[in-house]
């Protein structure tokens, strides 16, 4: 396997699309539809990379990233957003996100 990727997005279609792309490239993937699932999978599997949506019901991407950083300060995160949430993107950069990209992919 090339590595482990955690895909965090409340949209089923986005998760499936990214899952297919990365599995075809040899990555082991995990999917979470909300923050609680994301943190649970993160703790269990220690992914090499997290693809993190900003707008998730119950817990936004900034909150999730903060909690992940508490568990592993070296976590690599790429933020995904369908909106122009510049303040949230700026906050995730300060928290150590590698970069961001706009959805749809």
UniProtKB/TrEMBL annotation:
List the top taxonomic levels of the source: Bacteria, Bacillati, Bacillota, Bacilli, Bacillales
The UniProt record lists the Response regulatory domain at 4-105
Q: Which residues carry this modification: 4-aspartylphosphate?
A: 53
UniProt keywords (A-Z) are: DNA-binding, Phosphoprotein, Transcription, Transcription regulation, Transferase, Two-component regulatory system
* InterPro entries, alphabetized: Bact_response_regulator, CheY-like_superfamily, Sig_transdc_resp-reg_receiver
Q: Name one GO biological process term.
A: phosphorelay signal transduction system
GO MF entries: DNA binding; transferase activity
Into which EC class is this enzyme placed? transferase
EC nos: 2.7.-.-
Q: What is this protein called?
A: Sporulation initiation phosphotransferase F
* SMART domains assigned to the protein according to its UniProt record, in alphabetical order: REC (SM00448)
Checking Pfam families in the record gives:
Response_reg
Species: Anoxybacillus thermarum
């Amino acid at each position: 396997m090339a590595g482990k990727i955690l895909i965090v997005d409340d949209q089923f279609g986005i998760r499936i699309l990214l899952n297919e792309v990365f599995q075809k490239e040899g990555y082991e993937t995990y999917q979470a539809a909300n923050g609680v699932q994301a943190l649970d999978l993160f703790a269990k599997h220690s992914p090499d990379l997290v693809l993190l949506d900003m707008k998730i019901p119950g817990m936004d991407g900034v909150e999730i990233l903060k909690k992940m950083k508490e568990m592993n300060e070296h976590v690599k995160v790429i933020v995904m957003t369908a909106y122009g949430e510049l303040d949230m993107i700026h906050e995730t950069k300060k928290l150590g996100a590698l970069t961001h990209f706009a959805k749809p992919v």
